[in-house]
Amino acid sequence: MSTSSIPTPGYFSRHIFFCLNERDNGQDCCAQHGAQAAFDRCKALVKEAGLAGPGQVRVNKAGCLDRCAAGPVAVVYPEGTWYSYVDSSDIDEIVESHLKNGKVVERLLTPAELGR
Amino acid sequence: MSTSSIPTPGYFSRHIFFCLNERDNGQDCCAQHGAQAAFDRCKALVKEAGLAGPGQVRVNKAGCLDRCAAGPVAVVYPEGTWYSYVDSSDIDEIVESHLKNGKVVERLLTPAELGR
Fold it and tell me: Mutation test of the interface with chain B: which of A20, A61, A67, choosing the one with the most B Cβ atoms within 10 A?
């Protein structure tokens, strides 16, 4: 019988989720603002840097993250850091600063008041 | 100028991601093992319990979480707790114990050695 109450250590040291949601009624959504390209770029950069895999970083597709007003968004766990990005240089900075070096990119933080 | 180095507080207190990935080459995947039904059930239970929303719980769709050998899987952040579930009663227990009361469901923890 396992009596451990300690959760298993994080399988990934950092897990970033990109909202790739596409609304089918034509409403504004992350998918209309370059989310797929941002995801692809992030994934490629992380792989290129040798950061991908167990114990390291996972770049993940996600459905609607429910913060549409701040989109396009991505969230990094376990920190729970939310980013609102605009272009590919923003992605480069998130990878280099946060995913590689653990330093939050202040200028891209999603404003706390922005939700659905 | 913002000089804060403190990340914003978690927008959701708990964020659970279900792998709903469907491999297009017919290979085994979470989607073939009831992942959509599990996601739907979890989402409905969380809503019913009044736990859904900012400051509370978000039940999210995700693409491949890259732990196919342990599937179907879901991961709860910020804890980074991975679950391998089988049926709807497993989902009920994850909602009741972990998402509602913060108590990890030991018997459903994904074995640490199971990855892709």
Answer: A61
